[in-house]
Specification:
By secondary structure, this protein is mainly α. The chain has one domain. It contains three helices and no strands. The radius of gyration is 16 Å and the shape is elongated. The mean pLDDT is about 90.
Length: about 100
């Protein structure tokens, strides 16, 4: 619904913060784009599911986790592909 401070807002917020922290730690360990993106996606999905399970007071939500992880991984790989293409585009632009 797009309402700030709603339960879905907090699910997304904590998932994003967790993913950003993991990706930052992996960046410092010199992981590549793909590793960081897949780890961030996984952490984001797991944290959102954990928060959702607390909100609805049911572990049944974890039935959806495999689908979320698969779709998140596909999105993570697509993001890496786009980031690498963007990086290559700007390398060519800055050299001339």
């Amino acid at each position: 619904m797009g309402r700030i401070m709603s339960p879905t807002f907090w699910m997304g917020f904590f998932g994003s913060i967790g993913a950003a922290l993991v990706e930052r730690a992996l960046y410092r360990l010199r992981f590549g784009y793909l590793g960081m993106s897949l780890a961030g996606s996984t952490v984001n999905n797991i944290l959102q599911m954990l928060f959702g399970a607390v909100l609805i007071k049911s572990k049944g939500i974890f039935f959806l986790l495999p689908m979320f992880l698969i779709m998140g991984s596909i999105s993570a790989v697509a993001n890496v592909y786009i980031a690498k293409a963007y990086e290559k585009f700007w390398e060519v632009r800055t050299k001339t």
